Amino acid sequence: MREYWTWLASLMGAVAFLQGVVHAVFPAELRAAVARLLGRATRAFSPYCYFDVTETEGMSTNEIYDAVQLYLSSSAAPAAGARLSLSRPHNASSFTFGLAASDRVFDGFRGAAVTWEHVVAPRQTQGFSWRPLPEEKRRFTLRIRRGDREKLLPAYLDHILASAADIRRRSQDRLLYTNARGGAMDARGLPWDPVPFKHPSTFDTLAMDPERKAAIMADLRDFADGSAFYERTGRAWKRGYLLYGPPGTGKSSMIAAMANHLGYDVYDLELTEVGSNAELRKLLMKTTSKSIIVIEDIDCSVDLTNRAAAAAGAPPPKPRASIDGAIDQDASSPAGAARSITLSGLLNFTDGLWSCCGSERIFVFTTNHIEKLDPALLRSGRMDMHIFMSYCTFPALKILLQNYLDLQDSSAAGAGAVMAGLESWIDAAEITPADVSEVLIKNRRNGSKQAMEQLLEVLKARAEKRRRRESGPSPAAGKVAGGDDEEEEEKRALESPKGGGKEQGAMDGQDEETEAKKQL
Description:
Elements (H helix, E strand, L loop, with lengths): L1 H24 L2 H17 L3 E7 L1 E2 L2 E2 L1 H12 L2 E2 L5 E4 L8 E4 L4 E6 L2 E11 L13 E10 L3 H4 L2 H17 L3 E4 L14 E4 L13 H15 L2 H7 L4 E7 L6 H12 L2 E4 L8 H9 L5 E5 L2 H4 L5 H5 L22 H5 L4 H9 L9 E7 L7 H4 L6 E4 L5 H12 L10 H14 L3 H11 L4 H24 L3 H20 L2 H23 L1
Parallel strand pairs: 10-13, 12-15, 12-16, 13-14, 14-15
Antiparallel strand pairs: 1-9, 2-3, 4-7, 5-6, 7-8, 8-9, 10-11
């Protein structure tokens, strides 16, 4: 054992002597050049190639580094014994995992295996800088086989950037934007005011026939995944949806369900706050991709009525008063047209050249009277899919019962007969999902069966009222209506003292005075 330690000490002394001789004979520049040559020779025979993704590039941050960190935190599988760091970014709704120093993760793309390593090293002492750098230098090292280089690059990096953007969008809270200032800009140069979008509506809770919901969801998914399709066909990556139907049928809930399904932000465009077509284009330019632009009750916002009806002799729209009380000029005049939204401006907004300034946008218009809209606004390319929000049907009613009463099986609750009555009366009642929801909310504490019985009574009353209305008024009702008309005429006659009423009252007063004098 002593001989072993003696041999080891001699060897270490010889190595130290040779190192001193090398340092004394060969200068540092020569040693560095030899080290580089040896490294190149080693890498030339290595089956792998390496790529470094640094955290910073000069004085700016590296976008690829943040994307790789976010992608690996959710997609790649950590190696055995890997140490992960837990974080939650600002304005995010989920946690993200990151690699600790000197840990590795494995990933695959197109059948090729890749390895990522997170390298953290202390930074050398820096001099004076207007922007202090972090104390540590961080980078990701990508190792791939040489034969897979053409297969992975740059497609693999594009895949990482797209996946990171999708993860970032889904992890952050969605926003609801409104144009409260019209087209005016704020201090940041943005015309939109955002608030967190917390609407809980989803397609699972939406009161609609399951087949129609499945068709809408499939159309939305085809649109979101159709980047290559729209590029190949030469079409702008946008789509329009028109929601029409009676009030209370769930048009706003449908918009929220679409936003939650796709993970898009919502821009609620108030046309009455926009002064001209130029402001409308500015608002469109400031919207982001992967968003839904909504114009609710478009038939009530501005004058976009059917031009055919206007040509048939319909009266022109009355002038509207502005905020300060002044009457706006007629839109037909040059001054009024210059500072008002026209149908042409809205058409260019949805389907013109300005609508192509972004990608992956959805336009949603809602209206209660589709017949009032101009046909040019409804054609394909502007409103591609027309969705009729009808009255509550029996499949939609079952979804509402499940949402509000947690009713999975009507026979289990002993309400099979009541359910059969609901099915037979729901179509005749023509009741909206909003009215059904209100009845269920008021009676949900009384139990499922009593709530359903109360809903059945409401459906019967509505159906009977509708039947009477369609059958026409009775003679007695006509007499009553005639009496009401006579009473209204008498009221109008009595309430008009400004004209001849005052003169008649003065003459009556003079006659009374003359009669009194005669009696005296």
